[in-house]
Write a structure and sequence with these properties.
about 70 residues; three-stranded antiparallel β-sheet; 2 helices; about 30% helix
């Protein structure tokens, strides 16, 4: 996705969802890029990271809110 940057990533999807809600509550546009495949749950593929992305213009504000 051009113009979007990852501000957080983790293999624990619910943790990424919680951080997404923090950004939404602060009016920061964001999306989750989830490349995990549920059919491989418990296998090495399931440990791929889920990324939280924001537009480049919101990167600093998002990272400050997430304290990264």
């Amino acid at each position: 996705m051009n113009g979007w940057v990852a501000v957080f990533s983790d293999s624990f999807a619910p943790g990424v969802e919680m951080r997404k809600q923090v950004l939404i509550d602060s009016d920061i546009p964001c999306v989750i890029m989830n490349r995990q495949d549920s059919s491989y749950s418990g296998v090495g593929f399931a440990s791929m990271e889920v990324q939280l992305l924001v537009p480049e213009d919101f990167e600093e504000k998002a990272k400050a809110l997430l304290q990264l």
